[in-house]
Amino acid sequence: MTQHPTQAVILAGGQGTRLRPYTDDRPKPMVEIPGTGVPIIGHQLAWLAAEGVTDAVVSSGHLAEVLQDWLDRTELPCRVTTVIEREPLGRGGGLKFAARALPRPDEPWFATNGDIWTRFSLREMAGFHSERDATATLALARPRIPWGAVETDEFGHVLDFIEAPPSPYLINAGVYVFSPGFTKLLPERGDHERTTFPRLARARSLAGFPLPQGSYWRAIDTAKDLTEAAKELAGNG
């Protein structure tokens, strides 16, 4: 029987330098999507709760008190615990540090980067992870290339111009499902994407779940991403 994760980690400690001036007085996950009145982390918690998550651990660092203040005065859709990285541990170390605060260490868990705004079925992803008996599963997105592309033939004639085409490559979408044993494979500090993930890939224990067709996904890295997200939201309204 598939055990659907009911706990999650949100990595919310990044400095968000490319989002300045928005991040001068708040951490990146506290930046609001224009027009919603809700910070990115608010959207994430609502999504996780709608997907059956009852407990979330938020790993914070940069301007942690701003995030904590918002959590304290907001009616949250699930139980939220915060942990604070006193020194940067890297993404892998940060995950391990936060995972130690999960209420059910013997059960699987979700994780998401604090700057991802997306909607898709986590239950479906958990089922995919379970079917493959994976140690870790990462969601895969196919983002649009931010430039127009030029199509040519073998003789160098230009055939067509394609505005913002989908990338030919899938990328790590920053949303994960982890089996209980994954935590001990993480480094104490450093990046799991350069250590733990390659080892699991070689052992065929790492699965990739392509986001379902039509799923909304955006990483909020720059002010332009905020503007685009607001436009997309208005278009879907």
Automatic annotation (TrEMBL):
Domain of life from the UniProt record: Bacteria
Domain called Nucleotidyl transferase: residue spans: 8-233
Gene3D superfamilies, sorted: Spore Coat Polysaccharide Biosynthesis Protein SpsA, Chain A
Stored InterPro entries: Mannose-1P_guanyltransferase, NTP_transferase_dom, Nucleotide-diphossugar_trans
Pfam families (UniProt xref): NTP_transferase
SUPFAM superfamilies, alphabetized: Nucleotide-diphospho-sugar transferases (SSF53448)
Protein name: Nucleotidyltransferase family protein
Species for this entry: Streptomyces axinellae
